[in-house]
User: Which sequence fits this backbone?
């Protein structure tokens, strides 16, 4: 009988080994605050939405929602989180479905769905209204969210948003498969080269954001991430918001780095086209004219990510706009 139990124990232990060996390694990127997860069902698929919920030591009763860009996730907001939290704001920082620590399902991605997911998160947390701070692609999402749910947004901050022009009117079309094959070939060096374009002058401290983005390369589900990257590029091309800024009625702050020349799909353009489009000084002023209740802050010599490159100037602009 002893031998029987011993054999059973050995067999059970042996059977458990494959699960330990094949388990996915822990994410190597540590976010600045604990990460929570919201379970959702999108297109009949179960997914998880990662988010940080940072509660201040001395609450002012207000909440700020931070929306990340295309090549980023909640990690890069860490200094903005601290600034807001120190001033009493509760800060909600989601990784959108398809990014960061959230699920990377094969879906029909849309800004409408991402906005709906985000509002569901706020509902789950009992948050009725919020200030929305958005960067890059997050600006397109924030614009759509504000148009869909204007009663939920107190004030809107758009930091060098993409989508100030309609890329599909001048960027050559690429199929999702073409974009997917490009994403599969990504390397640390290619990510770093692209991130160089965000700043007029590269500094060693910017390397941290390259490491965060490149951490996806080592994940077991990298092919899923690459596919998501491809279809969300398609989302940007096919779902412009640039024709609807005049419909935004909430008070809006535009923070525009004047040295930014970001164009989604820039490598597909001729040199002459690259010099014609992505002109953020002109695009920022045009958008400020269209959003009637807007304030424009222009930052000379600043590239695509003011809150990273010139945090003091970014926070000064926020301080004069947020209560």
Assistant:
């Amino acid at each position: 009988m002893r031998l029987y139990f011993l054999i059973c124990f050995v067999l059970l232990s042996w059977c458990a080994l494959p699960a330990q060996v094949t388990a996915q390694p822990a994410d190597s990127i540590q976010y600045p605050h604990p990460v929570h997860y919201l379970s959702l069902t999108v297109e009949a698929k179960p997914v998880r939405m990662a988010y940080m919920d940072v509660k201040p030591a001395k609450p002012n009763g207000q909440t700020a929602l931070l929306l990340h860009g295309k090549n980023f996730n909640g990690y890069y907001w860490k200094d903005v989180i601290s600034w807001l939290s120190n001033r009493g704001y509760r800060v909600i920082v989601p990784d959108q479905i398809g990014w960061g620590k959230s699920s990377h399902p094969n879906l029909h991605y849309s800004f409408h769905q991402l906005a709906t997911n985000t509002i569901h998160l706020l509902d789950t947390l009992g948050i009725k209204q919020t200030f929305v701070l958005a960067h890059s692609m997050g600006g397109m999402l924030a614009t759509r969210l504000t148009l869909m749910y204007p009663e939920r947004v107190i004030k809107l901050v758009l930091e060098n948003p993409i989508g100030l022009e309609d890329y599909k009117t001048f960027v050559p079309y690429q199929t999702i498969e073409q974009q997917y094959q490009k994403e599969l070939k990504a390397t640390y060096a290619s990510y770093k080269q692209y991130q160089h374009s965000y700043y007029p002058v590269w500094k060693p401290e910017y390397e941290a954001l390259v490491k965060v983005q490149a951490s996806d390369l080592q994940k077991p589900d990298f092919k899923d991430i690459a596919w998501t990257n491809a279809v969300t590029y398609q989302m940007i091309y096919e779902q412009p918001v640039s024709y609807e800024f005049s419909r935004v009625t909430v008070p809006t702050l535009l923070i525009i780095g004047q040295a930014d020349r970001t164009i989604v799909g820039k490598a597909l353009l001729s040199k002459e086209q690259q010099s014609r489009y992505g002109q953020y000084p002109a695009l920022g002023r045009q958008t400020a004219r269209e959003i009637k209740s807007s304030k424009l802050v222009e930052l000379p010599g600043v590239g695509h990510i003011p809150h990273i490159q010139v945090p003091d100037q970014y926070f000064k602009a926020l301080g004069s706009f947020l209560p």
